[in-house]
Specification:
Number of strands: 14
Pfam families: Glycos_transf_1
Organism: Mameliella alba
Keywords: Transferase
Largest sheet: 8 strands, mixed
GO molecular function: glycosyltransferase activity
Low-confidence stretches: none
Number of helices: 17
CATH topology of the largest domain: Rossmann fold
Helix content: 25-40%
InterPro entries: Glyco_trans_1
Length: 394
């Protein structure tokens, strides 16, 4: 089925709010939509800035994409400089928005701005779990917009014990507003099932499942460090849900391998931070690496370890599988849906099995039995297939 060109309004609030930071999985999805929609139909961008709303036309959206890709932001303008408490990189990004936008307004004028500039009946797309407010929805209904919302996961409701204070309530409000959309796009059948379960008491909009595409990163020169082969990589924000504690518990008994923790420190994880601050032997914390450096480390590793308690999609293991890197993962349904029999699965309650498999993977690496030689061939999902599914309905 051909994709019909049409006007679309993409919410870019999340990408701008995180200017200057390494991209998360959610950020990557928003960026992929920005890149793809610029080539299909007429694209507009909406951003909720610290001083109100900003509207971009297609030229502005392309300029924003280029700035995000290059990390190249202009100087903060006077408005950003007088806004107290604004992160410096976000101040520069919001200043650039004001330079390239076609319109901006205070929150109370959002409806009027959209009516003045946008075509009635266009499609609004929100992929960032951000800025889906009553004000925005009301303004969109005022121009008869069709609303499409991307649902990455329902983790805050599924494992509330691993969330920051206030996250569960905010996510519940977000999900209730998302239920007023015309279409909900899920990244997996598992997320689609979870969504139906949490919204069982109310009318569920049309839903579709469209696996995320993967942009393979060409490895760069691996960063130097005090580690030696064999080493393992775990990737992601150091937060309770990612379960770094399990790996730290195990590593004292794995004397012949190193552990590289690639990710920034998150929240509500003081016990793990204190253990890392004590510099346990053969454990190395590596925040702030770019995608090419991470890919290089993965390519030389004995495997990726991912003991996360819950995932909406689990993009790092998918990326590692595409590189032919052996995987040891918690036994989660989403991994089996996306990766099938490629990883080794071990329940995180079975520490003996984790120790046994890590030791085996280290021995395989020392013997030269690594990467594609031992991992089944994996064909990752593509963005082309994702958008072929989504854009026929948006």
């Amino acid at each position: 089925m051909a994709i019909t060109p049409r006007d679309r309004l993409l919410d870019l609030t999340r990408l701008v709010s995180r200017a200057g930071r390494p991209m998360t999985g959610v950020d990557r999805v928003e960026f992929a939509y920005l890149t793809h929609l610029l080539q299909h139909g007429r694209l507009w961008g909406l951003v909720r800035s610290s001083l109100g709303y900003v509207l971009l036309d297609a030229t502005g959206c392309a300029a924003l994409r280029d700035r995000i890709a290059a990390g190249n932001w202009g100087e903060a303008d006077r408005l950003s400089r007088i806004k107290r408490g604004l992160d410096p990189m976000r101040a520069r990004a919001e200043s650039d928005l004001r330079r390239i936008c076609v319109a901006r307004c205070l929150p109370l004028r959002l409806s009027a701005m959209l009516r003045r500039h946008l075509t009635r009946g266009l499609t609004y797309v929100n992929t960032g779990h951000t800025n889906l407010t009553d004000r925005v929805l009301s303004a969109l209904r005022g121009i008869d917009a069709r609303v499409t919302v991307f649902i990455h996961d329902t983790i805050p409701l599924d494992v509330p014990q691993y969330q920051r204070p206030g996250t569960v309530g905010r996510f519940r409000h977000f999900l209730n507003r998302a239920a007023r959309a015309d279409l909900l796009v899920c990244n997996s059948r598992q997320t689609e099932r979870d969504l139906a379960r949490h919204l069982a008491a109310q009318r569920l909009p049309q839903t579709i499942s469209a696996p995320l595409g993967l942009d393979l990163t060409e490895p760069a020169q691996a960063p130097d460090g005090p580690w030696t082969a064999p080493y393992f990589v775990t990737l992601g924000t150091i937060e309770p849900r990612k379960n770094h504690a399990l790996l730290l518990d195990l590593w004292d008994d794995i004397p012949d391998a190193h552990l590289l923790i690639c990710g920034s420190r998150g929240w509500e994880n003081q016990a793990v931070f204190e253990r890392l601050d004590a510099h346990p032997p053969r454990v190395h914390e590596l925040p702030g690496l770019d995608d090419r450096q991470v890919a290089a480390l993965l390519a030389g590793s004995a495997g990726m370890l991912f003991p996360s308690f819950a995932e909406g999609y689990g993009l790092p293991p998918v990326e590692a599988a595409a590189l032919g890197v052996p995987l040891l993962l918690n036994n989660l349904p989403i991994y089996r849906e996306v990766l099938g029999d490629i990883p080794v699965y071990a329940d995180v309650a079975d520490t003996y099995l984790w120790h046994k498999e890590i030791s085996r993977m280290a021995a395989d690496h020392r013997a030269g039995r690594t990467r594609a030689e031992q991992a089944p061939r994996f064909a990752p999902p593509t963005w082309e297939a994702h958008f072929k599914t989504v854009l026929t309905l948006t």
